[in-house]
Amino acid sequence: METHPIPALRTPGVIATELGEPLHRVLYILRTRPYITASALAGRVRLYDRAAVVLIRDAMSAIDARNGASDA
Question: Which of 1, 9, 69, 70 is a good FRET partner for 40, with 20 to 30 A between their CA atoms?
Answer without folding.
Answer: 1
